[in-house]
Each structure stands twice: as structure tokens, then as C-alpha cells.
Fold this sequence. Notes:
- By secondary structure, this protein is α+β, with helices and mostly antiparallel strands.
- Helices cover 30% and strands 19% of the residues.
- It has a seven-stranded mixed beta sheet with strand order 1-2-3-4-5-6-7, with no helix packed on it. A six-stranded mixed beta sheet has the order 8-9-10-11-12-13.
- The site of zinc ion (ZN) has 4 residues, from loops.
- Zinc ion (ZN) binds next to loops.
Amino acid sequence: MSAADHRIGRVRVLGGAQNGKYPAGNSLWVEGTERAAVIDPSLSLLERREELGGRADMVLLSHAHEDHTAGLGLFANAPVHVHHQDLVGLSGIDGLMQIYGYGGELAERTRAWVLEQFAQVPRPDAVGFEDGACFELGGSTVRVFHAPGHTRGHCVFRIEPEGVLFLGDIELSSFGPYYGDAWSDLADFERSIELIRGLDANVWVSFHHVGVIEHRAVFLERLERFAARITEREQAMLAFLAEPRTLPEMIAHRFVYPAHAKLPFIDAVERRTLEQHLARLQQQGRISELEQGRYVLV
Length: 298
Ligand SMILES: [Zn+2]
């Protein structure tokens, strides 16, 4: 069951199944006087084909991940816009694997998993935009803020005049920031958290879980908790490095996913996440690398 829609002026939050829990998500519909835009068409929109299919004049994407593009098939005639650094993800499933940074057998398994879960509709005709781009819909403007880290091209959108800030996958969940792709970057993610903290808005919408937030104090509290997950992961790594450990030992221990989680790409995400933290901790002189690829607390 999809959650009920939520209206804010010309903006409609199209609530996803299970409150937008992955693989679903919360999309936005912005109905201007001249044009309508859909933002991040989720898997849940496929159940609303009759109501929404073909009715958007443009599709805007916060980034190219599979769960944000799952409903693209409903809008085959509408131009698709995404930040130019994520365009490759729209070119097809191989482009998506490039964003993940997977090759060989892992790419095979992930490809099969994505194709089974999602309706993948490649859009090699997608058009790239830049930071600061504005989409005028008539009485409504969607303004782009480049907020990389989750992916290189990840953006948040502010819909004006309502002041609705669509956060994409800076999603404020208890899972915490995800920066586990080849296309991800921890330091960029931290800068993007600071960027959105400073943006004027009246309402905040995240693609997953949290949904609609209507008070700045609540948004700031959620953002604080979300950002703290980065520090908590790092603290857990440092505690584990009280004894010398290799990267494979750390990957097996898991610092991102819970022990019970079963997805084909978990080890790859743990590795990419760990590599970024280890490089930073080494640079800060808080850990050192011993012989045979073992790391230890200084
Ligand atoms: Zn994503």
C-alpha cells in the first residue's frame, strides 16, 4: 500500500509503499500553470499508471540510482533531466554498474538483482543540468542545488514559492549517509550536509522513510542524527582497530550493514566505505598501516 499523498501548494508528495522504504520511495509532483514535473518517479508510481501515466511534461532526477528511476516508463515522452555527472547511469544497466563501480561476477549478480526488482527503462536521451539550474513551470520554479557525495551528480531541489526542499537520498534515515559506490565521496557528502543545513526552506521531503518534515527544528534534529552516523561508524572502526586488522577482516565485521542483511553488493559497499575512512584516519595520524595490509590504532 502506498502512503497517502501530501499537498503543499502546487506540490504533491506521492507517498511510496511502506513509507518509501527501499525499493520504494516518495516522489514529487509539481503542477505549474503551464507545465507539470515529476521528481524521482519511484516504483510505487507504477501502480498509478492510469492516473499519472504520460501526464508529466518533464522528469527531474536527484540522481541516477535504480530506485529513483523505477517509474520512468510512465513518462516515456517527457524529457528527463539529471545532473551531468550522473548521466551515465541513465544510459542503461551497464552505466549504472559504472556508478556502483562493479565489474565481473558482482556486476552480473547485481545486474540480475536490479532487473528483477525494478523496471529499468534506459534514457540515453536524458539531458544534463548544472548547479543552479531552474525549471519554470508557470507560477512554480524548481531550483537545483548540486549536493554530491551519495553520487557525483546528486542534487537537492527547492520548489518555489512553497519552499519545499526535496532531499533525494540525503534521506535522514537511521541507516545514515550512504557513500559506498565508486561514484560516492565521504568528504563531499559531509559538505552537502552542511549545504542543506544552510538552505532556506519551509518543508523538507526525503525520498525514503522520513517523508515530509514541516518544522525546521525537527529537520535540524534529524539531520544531526543522520550526520552523527558517520562519526559513529568511525568510532566503531577505531575500536575494532585496537588490535591489528586487515581490510578483509573489517569488511567481514561490517560497519555499514547489519549482520543479518543479505544483498549481493554488501562487501563492495563495506569496502568502499572503509577505504575512505581508513585513508582519512591515516592522514590524521589516528591509525597506521603495519606489514601485510594490517591497520592498527596509533
Ligand atoms: Zn541513491
